[in-house]
Amino acid sequence: MDSINALKGYNKVGEGNLDTNNNNNPSLRKARNRLIISITSLVLLTTLIIASIIGYACLSDESEDTRENENPNSASTWSSDQILKSLCNATQHPNSCLSSLANSHASDPVELFKLSLKVSLEELLNVSSVPKRMMAKANGGKGVETALRDCEGLIGDAIDGVNKSIECFVGVGEEGLSESKVNDVRTWLSAALTDQQTCLDGLEEVGSGGVGDEMKVAMKDSVEFVSNSLAIVARIVEMGGTSVSAPPHRKLLGISVKC
Ligand SMILES: *[C@@H]1O[C@H](CO)[C@@H](O)[C@H](O)[C@H]1NC(C)=O
Ligand SMILES: *[C@@H]1O[C@H](CO)[C@@H](O)[C@H](O)[C@H]1NC(C)=O
Ligand SMILES: *[C@@H]1O[C@H](CO)[C@@H](O)[C@H](O)[C@H]1NC(C)=O
What we know:
CATH superfamily of the largest domain: Invertase/pectin methylesterase inhibitor family protein
InterPro entries: Invertase/methylesterase_inhib, Pectinesterase_inhib_dom, PME_Inhibitor
Enzyme class: hydrolase
GO molecular function, one term: enzyme inhibitor activity
Helix content: over 70%
Oligomer: single chain
Keywords: Disulfide bond, Glycoprotein, Membrane, Signal, Transmembrane, Transmembrane helix
Mean pLDDT: 75
Distance between the termini: 50 Å
Bound molecules: 2-acetamido-2-deoxy-beta-D-glucopyranose
Domain Pectinesterase inhibitor: 79-232
Largest sheet: 2 strands, antiparallel
């Protein structure tokens, strides 16, 4: 504030001297020089302050990340571990939940949920080629072939449901994770789980024996992963929607939902 007032003062001096129209006046030159020095100092000072703020912000971000990555026993890692355990504890397959999400080091429940959706999608994409492969070698007759063809469509539907759920959580914004969107996601994931079960039931109904068992083995992980995703989102809602159990620097509500 002082330097701003000083600047105004010099401005007045400058204007006053200009009014006298005496450009060669040494006191005018002196005033101008002082004005230039003041402005330069002010600009430098402002730049320095802004640079310090940016520098400090980057530094604290870095040290945060470094802490999380390099000290596995530090409190922040411990809390992300606790959050993962608490989410996976709510699933029917805690082991596959923990092993598929453990490497993420994410401490935000919504991030972990998004990751679980990606894991589910990847596994479903992997499984999607299985029915065709079985059709090529199965000789269980028309019934089995039809059931396998149904499986292909059902797995495709499950993929669409999980993919739609992922599309819901893109980017960061202010609108938050609304209850109706969460309900949409739960509906799609339930349907994706039912699709897979319907495929297995269909094979069982046509008495495909070995083919059904083989499909059950092939779909074991994808069934478990989708079931885990469903339990995780339910747990997040139970934990208070989107605002509980996260470290303060994570903004759970800052998830914009596009679906
Ligand atoms: C897992 O859930 C059970 C109850 O369902 C609870 O007793 C236990 O403390 C939970 N464990 C963790 C690590 O959250
Ligand atoms: C994909 O499935 C095959 C067997 O069908 C399995 O060997 C492979 O590990 C799976 N890949 C992933 C990423 O799950
Ligand atoms: C998921 O949806 C997006 C956009 O709707 C699409 O571009 C992408 O191909 C889909 N992925 C799969 C695996 O279906």
